[in-house]
Amino acid sequence: MDIQLTTGVDLHIIATKQFKVTRILVNFATEQRQISPSARNLVANLLVTSSAKYRTQTVLARHLNDLYGASLSGYVSRVGLAHTVRLKLALINDQAAKAPLFERGSALLKELLFNPLVENGAFDAETYRLQQANTIGNLQSWDDDKRFYALKRLQQTYFTEVAELRRPASGTVAEVQNITSQQTYQAYQEMLAHDKIDIVVVGDVDEAAVCQAMRALDFSPRQSPLHQSLLYHQAARQTPAFATEVQPLAQAKLDLAYHLPAYYRQDNYLTAIVLNGLLGGTPYSLLFTNVREKASLAYYATSSLRAFSGEILVETGINPADQTQARALIEQQVADLAAGKFNDAQFQRVKEGLVNQYVTGLDNPNVLAQARLITALMGLEPSQKVAEGLRAVTKEEVANLAAQMTLEAVFLLDGKGGETDGEA
Predict the structure, then answer these.
(1) Most buried of 58, 139, 158, 270, CB within 10 angstroms?
(2) 228 part of a folded domain
(3) Which of 50, 29, 27, 41 is nearest to 123 (CA)?
(4) Structural contact between residues 314 and 303, judged by C-beta atoms closer than 8 angstroms
(5) 170 CA to centre of own chain
(6) For residue 147, what are the contacts with CB-CB under 8 A and spacing of at least 6?
(7) Which of 151, 181, 215 is where one domain is finished?
(8) For all residues of the chain together, what is the average pLDDT?
(9) Which residues form the Peptidase M16 C-terminal domain (predicted)?
(10) What is the pLDDT of residues 312-356, one digit of tens each?
(11) Within a domain: residue 52?
(12) How far is the C-alpha of 2 from the C-alpha of 273, rounded, in Å?
């Protein structure tokens, strides 16, 4: 059920008796180029920390406990060319609790969104200092995860034409350190007044009651700041970009970014999912079988599909001395896919694994909410017959699509030598 609450604010209800917990996801979206991701990350953290009524994390936690142990989180994410701020509240449903928890939870969301803890046109100074420090700590801990760090640097190497996509959706330590409470409060006001808003509710709910509760949030009308399409197309390079960085590591990270002319919900989208599963996205993949197991050239070797930017990203952890051999073998797996050099049994195992993963996701309310949110942002109806579509993908379709893959960027996080940037 989809309802427009007002211009630019849409409600999506997935009413199901599957779950005893109801999820409410409130998503704010705008163009990445128009905002500071660091400021919006701070906003997300501040909104789920306190409010004018619940002035500390301790007081707010007590209230959540009064709501039968409700859980609350706030975070940022990117969907193609859109930057999103999300608040998520999970409540035991009214039938199981025998109490009006949805109504009380909706009132809490309204308090958090419209009455943050502010003074003199800025977030409360002490609360802001604490959340600023927490956010910096989180960002630093992510960079301490060298696999995550290498993937971030690969994306910075890959994206050349849109500077905003080179910046993490969560912002950077330097930006968070320099943003003031006043600037963050301004980012909050702009988000509340101008962002496209989608609310997704999943659970055993009364649709009329949900509509009434969500209308009570009383968002103002706004024109959507999003492009008609959130997909990003980047022109191909003549030669792949190459970057390397040296850190004191025993295990190097070798990551490759391939352009793949396949995008979310386009005709070859399901073929791209199967292709990625065959390359490195499942335990039956070529990367796992040939690079990790047979050649023993990688501690891990996986791939992931980025369907909003037309990419397949390959991640490996290797011995520094094996980088040349490992890269050659990775590229050989892509060539083998394009040549159709994968057997029928492997192909069927990959497809059935992907179907099982999809079917399992239907039993996860967070997966359902995320899927509906993305289709809403893209202006699409929910997917239909996905399992059948995955099973119908042919070897020829996979090979033809793999033949169109082009290597665009390589990043090596090395444990020896000097630091350089250039062409591969």
Answers:
(1) 158
(2) no
(3) 50
(4) yes
(5) 11
(6) 253, 315, 317
(7) 215
(8) 93
(9) 178-354
(10) 999 999 999 999 999 999 999 999 999 999 999 999 999 999 999
(11) yes
(12) 28
